[in-house]
Amino acid sequence: LVDPQDFVGSDLPVGYYPVDANAARFETKNDEGHSFAHHLLIEQQVRYLKEAGVGFFIVPTNLFDTPEGEKLLSYLQKETYVQAMLAFPRNLFKDVQFSKSLLIVQKRGKGAKQVSQVLLGDIPEFKNREKFRKFTLTFEKWVQEML
Length: 147
Hints:
The protein has helices at residues 20-23, 37-47, 67-79, 129-146; strands spanning 5-11, 16-17, 35-36, 49-60, 80-87, 100-107, 119-122. By secondary structure, it is α/β, with parallel strands linked by helices. The protein has a single domain, classed as Vaccinia Virus protein VP39 (Rossmann fold).
């Protein structure tokens, strides 16, 4: 279908995938009932990454806070290195329950490596210039280590 890619990225739709027969082909499927579409899409995009390829996903901030999320995390730990999970500023969302984060993973394989420290945290509000400047410096340093 698609040749393996160096980078993939997506602002994933959140919800249930209604075709259980198709979902059955995925490790991240739910054992009962419909599976989460965003979990299946992450798995599919990881499959399309080259070894050491990087995936950037905009995901619900609470992605790993459910039993299904634990299954997704287990899959990601097996197939990728989870390199970062950064929450976007809460003020970008009308309701914090719908807040999003940036998940960055690197597919395992030749040339891939786990960064010494997974980058976890909140991206500061853009209007707070000093905090945002410090965040940018930290992020740039982290990117250099990842490369």
